[in-house]
Structures are given as C-alpha cells and as structure tokens.
Design goal:
The chain has 166 residues and is mainly alpha-helical. Helix 1 packs antiparallel against helix 2 and helix 2 runs antiparallel to helix 3. Helix content is 83%, strand content 0%.
C-alpha cells in the first residue's frame, strides 16, 4: 500500500516538473515569436505570427499552467513540505496563483492581437510591445518560481505544526 502511495506521489511530482518546465519553455517560445512580430515590418506576416501566438497560448501555455498549478498543490499536500508549512512553498503557491490569474487576463491581449493582425490597417504597435513585455515578465517570474523550487530556502511559517510545538 505504501509503495503504491509512494509511486503515486512520485508520478504526480514528475508530472509537476514536466508541466512546469513545459510552461516555462512555451513562454520562452512565445516571447521569441512575439519579438519577431514586434520587429517584422511586413504586415502581411503579422497574421501568421499572431495566429501562432494564439495557438501556442491556448494549446500549450494555458494547459501547462493549469496542470502545473494543480500538480504543484497536490505535490505539496502529499509531501512533507506541506502547502503552508514552509515559506518557499507558500511563496511558490502565491506566485503561481498570480501568474496563472495574469495569464488568463493576458489571453484577451493575445486574442485581440490575432484578430487585429488579420484586419488591414489596424494599429498593432501597442499590442506588439505589450506581448513582448508581458511574456518577458512572465518568463522572469516562472524562472523565479522554478528557482524557489530548486533552492528550497529555509524558513518555516507560523502555520507549521512544528512552529506551534515550540
């Protein structure tokens, strides 16, 4: 029984790592494509670039973000780290929740850019720059979240059972 539980925890943790890396890598690809769209003077190419961004967002980034969030919560609850026992886990939870929420706000901008790129004569400049800045900020935030998971800084929250026992 305990070996099955251990394998389940390991599988969930592995899925969390894979989806978190996928999320980060997809945002990096998104950033590169967004930079290409921002730098490309040929407006005929914009429709293809922003269609690619829209597909990348909805097919890879959003599912990876949601799965990363859910598997992260499950991993924390099922492990000795707990969800609110250690500061680094709590910070990851807060940052990931914020990043996921901002992602859903950002979907409107991507959809608007894809729609505007198809139309002739639409001013894309502001949308292009926003996509580059937003995706660069997202990549930095995801790197910070990943770094917290790798480094695991010390510190127990006041809500930890061990801090209450002292």
């Amino acid at each position: 029984m305990s070996s099955t539980r251990g394998r389940t925890r390991s599988a969930i943790r592995a899925l969390h790592v894979v989806t978190s890396i996928s999320w980060t890598a997809a945002v990096a690809v998104f950033l590169v494509i967004a930079i290409l769209g921002w730098c490309t003077p040929d407006t005929r190419v914009h429709a293809g670039i922003y269609a690619a961004l829209e597909v990348t967002l909805w097919v890879v980034i959003v599912p990876s973000a949601v799965l990363s969030f859910l598997t992260g919560v499950l991993t924390s609850v099922l492990s000795r780290w707990g969800l609110t026992r250690h500061w680094w886990v709590l910070f990851k939870l807060v940052l990931t929740t914020g990043a996921t929420a901002l992602l859903f706000v950002h979907t409107r901008v991507v959809d608007a850019a894809a729609d505007a790129a198809v139309g002739v004569g639409h001013d894309m400049e502001a949308l292009e720059l926003q996509l580059v800045i937003d995706s660069a900020a997202a990549l930095g935030l995801l790197a910070l979240i990943g770094g917290l998971g790798y480094i695991k800084p010390r510190g127990i929250t006041p809500w930890s059972e061990s801090s209450r026992a002292d």
